[in-house]
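Researcher: Here's the sequence for the chain we discussed earlier.
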Amino acid sequence: MSKKYVMVNFFPHEADALKNYLEARALEGWKLDKLGNFFLCFSPCTPHTIRYCVEIMERPSVYASNQTPERKGYREFCREAGWDYLGCSGYFHVFCTESPEAIEVETDPELRFQHIVQAENGNYKLMLPLVILLAALSLAAFFEKGTLLTSNTFCLLLMAAACLYSGGSSLRWKNKAAASLAADGVLPHSDWKRVRLKNRIWTFGLLAGAAIYTIWILAATVPSGYTAYAALAFAVYLLIFFLLMFLFSRVLFWLREKRAYSKNTNIALYWGAALASAVLICVVIFVFFCWFFS
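Model: Thanks. This is the structure I predict for it:
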């Protein structure tokens, strides 16, 4: 059997659901092989018990280097305790062991709660600049054209919906976790099947809404006879977009796993490269349309 790739579709507060999901896959004959920013890679194996530990490190950030002395020390502690480090995906750092004698290496529940809340807050800090930018563009379009029915407004609505969904889910977990810690000293566990189904439905719902809106915009704005060309141009744009997403995921992996730069340096390098690429895409698209309509 070949390897299997599965999209990472868990929020930071669903770390235990991800852990239970990985352990269930092992019992089905699929062992986690490696992690990426967007996907998990599984290799076929004989169905057996594999224990996983999914941690969110201190001062969580997707840009934080994994080569700091603190993180190296934690990985070494886990290795000596019988746990193998598989890598990280976003905020998640994953360890596994097949030894039933290996001691638990999970962080104290109170500290885990703090790390998860910090990671959730970091997500909103990442989204806020984009929300502000889209809101400003929509407002400018309203004053210029007298309408809010623009692609920027639609993107803003999608972003707001995603924020409300993730924020509501995070707030419910936070309240439940605080009560559980106060009563029993443990964090609540989520059913991975329900969590994964819920997040998958929401993700594909957003993607379907974006696709429908894009088709509607193309049909309404492209002159008759040019629809096929516009669709082709849009498909090329999407291809370039996803290729760049893959490239930047590799850049972020290299910065995080291979270099010991500070978080701020990694942010500057990553988003500097992203901005330069965005400008390049705009130039390419502009040149293409000037050539096509000349």
